């Protein structure tokens, strides 16, 4: 029965806007002159519809002109013209486009439809633009329908599919037609069919179309749910919604009297105070809620104040009513279909989100790896703690910024900045090693403190030189945007670039250590400095170079990090603790350990963020706690050197 | 004969290298024993296992009459139940005076609260004085041990070991870096100590071992190669092949 | 032959006498109006920092544990006392304003009013569970020592049990501080996020007294705490306990073979100093008036180590001198009173450049004067450093360096 009524209503609605083919645009406008001149959103709809459905080939041009202040009416006789500004006032054309001379400005009233009316005209124009010869216009029309789906667009859209010859646009039109069908088609079977037709499609537009179907509102009813309501589920006060919220619902629905708020009670008591006594209770005793309730009840009995629901009454009212979550969409077949479809989608979506999370974690891991690899060299290979490592990262980022001041081309500037950042931080590292660290070998704690001092000083120098606000380090345009596999899984190009950079450095490090003379000497000095020295290797030189390379890589990491993070004096210190954690968790003295550590920390942070997406601060807190616990079980990291070599 | 330390079937490996291979060893409560063997025979690892520094992969190590397993105890607990160790290089606390070093080692409560409340009584001071005099450091009580000569540090460490009053002493190359006279004194001291407690001496120097005049255990590749008097083991063909033959 | 303890450590008597004289001087100066209230507060805060530095000296100078986490305990102490101060103070205001409304306040109204007053700034109106004790001064004072003590106990137990030493431990403690500050920065941590706690200089019920008196009272409390703690720690390090922890600093493996449980001692020292530092924080922040998570920045954790290093490691008076000198200089330089240095092409403005100078001078002290200011006293007393050809006094990372030792 209910469904029949719905169908009838829809049919009536369709009749109302059925085309009146007999009239031309000029006739329609002439017939509705005053309405058109004072067009408002509430009143103009029939005129626009009549124009749109008139079948007059000029109608599209007239509507377009109207929306763009190109329609005017001659004050003398109320005839409408297409107008355009000319030296004498306006150049006139009649509504079929034929030249009709000129008129002075004062003779013509230019129509200035407001934004609401313009929007309605635009919607009406859609049916014309959907078949416009220009594909770009057709695409724009589709986009506009997609952004603001309406029932009215359904019929013209359907009509335009057959004549579409562009295969891409045709597919787009078909998809959009299905999306509109599942929301607006008067026939619920057609809607259900449209819903199931999508299968496990994870498009955002589909979810955007399905979710409104499942929109619910909470209603209260005495006894069973009202006839015809499409009930999603019954809500039990205290379990599914709070008692207070449930009672508020009753009050809103007029099913129960309002509760007495503490503030209102206070006002009432104050208003009825007589000689410091109210309702038989002395003012001084009104410092507990129990006493106030007692006083108020006394006033109620005396009829001095309106009766307010007590806790017992409120509880009784709640017990007497049922609460339902009800779909706004009245048809259960449609909501069931939408629910089932969303379930299918969400299953696929979960898999996709996991994949996306994996990509996120991978990119975070590459960032940590980049930030930590320099440390892995200085700490892992030389056993030197460099707390100023973070400032070397900052230094690299600022180098990139300064380069961009001189080289405006972003691509060229990045190409220059990467080696320059390496050179700058390499020199800074060598200077630090020569001036400070060299004197503190075998004193790791003093090294830590001294480099911490350097870090404090450098950070303040950055602040003094570059200021406290963030400096721009802009990536080239070809790194903008993201590689999207679908609506869920995507990764920005800049993160891909960082991943590639991390891989390059892994390769570079392995090549350096395993394939070069320098690497051989570094390993020799690491394992036995005295023996290495007696073989003619100069440990001083090796230490200096190793430290320089470690610092240089930090500089390059700085440029990379600066491309997506804010370049401030604190850029590096945000990464320093995580970098150390990466090295320590991974296992000191092993590049694969650093890789494993970065992967673990990056992955972990993303997983924790996934549980609590709103709070990255909490994610970092929990991650650090996890690391502290992790070190309990693997004090030497994931990939540990074991046995005597580890210095037992 | 009852034994104070019983090591049986112990094996340990580092990254695939078997440092100790199914080693078994016992020593009586008042016995002096020398352990000899070429470099890498596992002498130091053996001491590490007994003192709790290294955990073996398999085997048992028990101590005392009640056969307490040492494998579950920490280094500190092992030291507290009566195993003392002297390192190859003298390890004393160089920033502290001879008195402080000896006081640290004196047998007394080891927990932080007990130590906080501890104050030197006349008996403690007398004991420190006696120990220092026993090793010839009676005049150096107030000196920082870092200023002592190498030999004096060795003596100080031996005195610290005595102050601990252990029931089993593990002594790693006590004669290294000592003059001939000092060696003789060390020998006499070790023999004297071994009258009341077990002493294991790891040594390279054959003359020194000969002077100790005790049972000798020869280690090779982490296992016992031979055991007996020095004369007995030096006649053993295996021992001659792997150790003495090269020297 | 055994000299009395006080005779053997003249620095203790000299220190206590100096502190007492200084306290009397400040009291008189404040009374006579020679000294501004804010300067008395600065001096009182400096004494609290000295107190924290003394504790840091025990853990870093004596036991060789370079903790970068003690500033976290300092802040927790401040937060704990701050919670009571803010609660009690707000309660007064709320009760007074409800009184004006005509009816005496009910407990619920007071509770609600306090919650709205304190947490309106982070968009909440309920009192978080962790404020459950904030109404009671004794309970919150208990928390000042209990919470940092417990945290230090758990963290230390985990860290020392798995034999995390040297730089690993430093990094781990730094991470702990970072975790705590990130936690406090959250608005829903229940401690007002980055707003922190404020208005702590007003003591509830003592509005009539005035800040000039309160500042002197806090100065006395700080001086008393410093004096007592100094006495306690001097006693702790003078006996066998001090000998054990110095031995742990230089060669912990050897200490183990003497039968001492190194982990227990480290835990003991770590926890004891955490509690002392927390007390220092609880005295500091009422004088500062405000506490927020920025107090836990990485630089804060290094400050304690800087004070100890500049004063000279392993001598309690060194830590006090280091903390006093550095923090007073910092106040002077960053207060805008230090004259700028024109260089022609640029001007050195000390507000901006002080941190650079501090960082660099810290590096210089580490490199060239490991004894810090304490070295001057040694030189005065005719003590020399031993000639050890560069060898430190023990194999461990935290052991004394040749240049730090006294012959």
Write up this protein.
The complex is a heterotrimer of chains A (648), B (247) and C (407). In chain A, 61% of the residues lie in helices and 8% in strands. The N and C termini of chain A lie far apart (85 Å). Chain A folds into three domains: 17-186, no CATH class; 216-327, no CATH class; 350-612, ABC transporter involved in vitamin B12 uptake, BtuC (Orthogonal Bundle), CATH 1.10.3470. In chain A, helix 7 (135-147) runs parallel beside helix 9 (167-184), helix 9 (167-184) packs parallel to helix 11 (204-213) and helix 12 (243-252) crosses helix 15. Chain A has helices at 2-16, 25-31, 33-37, 45-52, 59-67, 115-129, 135-147, 154-161, 167-184, 188-196, 204-213, 243-252, 262-271, 289-302, 311-320, 332-382, 389-406, 410-435, 444-466, 493-515, 517-527, 529-534, 539-564, 573-586, 591-611, 616-633; strands spanning 71-74, 80-86, 89-93, 99-103, 108-110, 216-222, 231-235, 277-278, 281-282, 321-327, 482-484, 490-492. The longest helix of chain A has 51 residues, at 332-382. Chain A has a five-stranded antiparallel β-sheet. Chain A has a three-stranded antiparallel β-sheet with strand order 6-10-7. Chain A has 648 residues and is of the alpha+beta class. Chain B has 247 residues and is an alpha/beta fold. Chain B folds into two domains: 1-82 and 166-247, P-loop containing nucleotide triphosphate hydrolases (Rossmann fold, 3-Layer(aba) Sandwich); 93-164, no CATH class. Helices cover 37% and strands 25% of the residues of chain B. In chain B, helix 3 packs parallel to helix 6 (150-163) and helix 5 (122-134) packs across helix 6 (150-163). Chain B starts with a strand and ends with a helix. Chain C has one domain. Chain C is built from 15 helices and four strands. Chain C has helices at residues 5-8, 10-32, 37-62, 70-100, 107-119, 137-161, 166-185, 211-238, 240-250, 252-257, 262-288, 298-311, 316-334, 350-368, 374-381; strands at 197-198, 290-291, 341-342, 347-348. Chain C has a two-stranded antiparallel ribbon with strand order 1-2. A two-stranded antiparallel ribbon of chain C has the order 3-4. Chain C is globular and about 80 Å long. Classes of the chains: A alpha+beta (648), B alpha/beta (247), C mainly alpha (407). The B-C interface holds B 51, 53, 74-77, 79-80, 84-85, 87, 91-96, 100, 103-105, 110-112, 115-116, 118-120, 125, 144, 146-147, 160, 164 and C 2, 236, 239-241, 243-244, 246-247, 250-251, 253-262, 264-265, 268, 386, 388, 393-394, 400, 405, 407.
